Amino acid sequence: MFRAGFIIATFCAFLTSVSAQIMNKQSAELLPDAASSLVHWEAFPQASSAPATDSNKESKSQNKRMFGMIPNSRTADIGDYTGPLTVSQKFKLTTDYFSPFTLVYVGMSAGFDQAFDFKSGYGQGAEGYAKRFGADFTSGFTHAFFVNGVFPAVLHQDPRYFRQGQGSAGSRVSYALSRAVVTRQDSGQRAFNYSALLGSTVSSGLAHFYYPESDRSASGFAIRIGYQMLSEAGFNVMREYYPDLARKIFKKKKK
C-alpha cells in the first residue's frame, strides 16, 4: 500500500512540476510585458452590460446556496469579475465542503455503495457503512482541497466557475461542460484546467491509503479520476442554470 501511494505521489509531483514549467513558458509567450498581464476578456463569452437592479442583487444573494443548501461561492457571472483571487481566498473556497449538504450527499453515497456492495472490502453492517462514509467524505475533501486550493495556488489558475448566463441552451451547456477541462489563469488568459486534472489525480491516488485492497487497482484509480471530472462538469451545468431556475421559483412565490 505504501509503495503504491509513494509511486502515485511521485508521479503527481512530476506532473505538477511539468505543468508549472509549461504554464510559465506559456505565460512568458503570451505576456511579453507588464501591460499584457491585464485581464483579457476576448477569449470568454461577454456578459450583459445591463445595470444591476434590486432583483439582480436579491438573486445573487439567493444564489450563494443553490436550493438553499448547496454551497455556491465558487460561482460568479463573467461580468462580475473584479480580479484574481488571492491564495488565501482560493483555500477558503475549500471550506464550502464542510456543509450540511456534504453530510447528506456523502451519507447517500455511502448508502448506495453499501446497497450494491461497492468497496466490498469494508463489509456490511454499521461498521461497513461507517468505513464507506469516512472514505467518501475523505475523498471528497481531498478533491476539494487540491482542486480549489493547492493547484490553483501553485499554477496561478482561477478555481471559480464563471457563468455564461446567456445564449442558446446548447451553447450554455457545452460551455458549462467544457469548464471541467478549460479554465483561466489569474492573468485572465484561457488555459487547460491542470488544477482539476492534477487535483483529481492526487485525490484518487491518496484513496489507495484507505480504500479496500480490491479497489486499489489501476482501473479503480482511473475510474475515480473520471468520476470526479464528470461530477465537476455536471455541477457546472447546475451552476450555469440555477440562477435562472431560482428567479422563476422566487417569482412564483412572490405572486
TL;DR?
This protein is mainly alpha-helical and 255 residues long. It has 8 helices and 7 strands, in the order ααβββαααββαββαα. The strands form 3 sheets. Strands 4-6-7 form a 3-stranded antiparallel β-sheet.
Overall description:
- Helix content is 59%, strand content 7%.
- With 255 residues, it is mainly alpha-helical.
- The protein is built from 8 helices and 7 strands, in the order ααβββαααββαββαα.
- The N and C termini lie far apart (60 Å).
- A hairpin with a 3-residue loop joins β1 and β2.
- State the low-pLDDT regions, or none: 1-59
Which range best describes the helical content: under 10%, 10-25%, 25-40%, 40-55%, 55-70% or over 70%? 55-70%
Structural class: mainly alpha
Assembly state: single chain
Treating each run of at least 4 consecutive H or I residues as one helix, how many helices? 8
End-to-end separation in angstroms reads 60 Å
Radius of gyration: 20 Å
The tally of beta strands, per DSSP, is 7
Order of helices and strands: HHEEEHHHEEHEEHH
Overall pLDDT, averaged? 79
Outline type: globular
Main pleated-sheet profile: 3 strands, antiparallel
What order do the strands of the largest sheet run in, or round the barrel if closed?
Answer: 4-6-7
Provide the β-strand percentage band.
Answer: 5-15%
